[in-house]
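Protein modeling request. Please complete all fields; requests missing the sequence field cannot be processed.
Requester role: graduate student
Desired output: 3D structure, token encoding
Chains: 1
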Amino acid sequence: MILALGVFLPEVKPVMDNMLVLESGEILGRHYCRGVIGNNEVIACGGFVGKVETSMITQKMIDLFNPRLSVLTSGAAAIDESIEIGDVVVGTEFEEYDTIFPLSEGKMVMKAPDTLLMRFLRVYFKAGKFGKILSGDGVIANSSLRDSIHSSYGGIALDMDSAPFAKTVFENKKNYLVLKTILDRADEASKRDFDRNFERLAGRSAELLVETMKNHYIDRE
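Delivered output (221 residues):
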């Protein structure tokens, strides 16, 4: 089974809309659907903000459905000049930039597993950007702060959920992948850009996941 999660429901709605639904309901007040896309059994859920809620929902879905592969598909901000609004970013590493308990000689970096889906994307997803995603509990809308975070940690994108998602799935000894659509640049225009781009771009990374599941059997990770 593949678990598809979106921070906001519209970010995972393409998965829900394209599945043959077998069941639906609520888990911890969040809407979910379970069904089939292509030859893949899928469960999709959305609705969480920040590191605590991300970990909570991810763990609950793993406990209930025991997916072999978990995919986080939602929005993020670009912090690298090579990344454009509308780009889909595939996370290869994940790190919290705001933790006060750093590990491993000052840093704790999660590396994405080399799953079948990751290998497929590297070969066929020519338009994708691959790189490190940073997570923290706060909306960054200041170019100086953004640049300071980028200078300290590197990375190509910024969000509030990729690192805790990766950590939770990793601790459960499961495979995972993060697909992020860039909606803003974490600068002074972020709110305007997010509001302008969310409706038209929110589902882009989920659409990529749907296309892949329709044409390939990835529920054997």
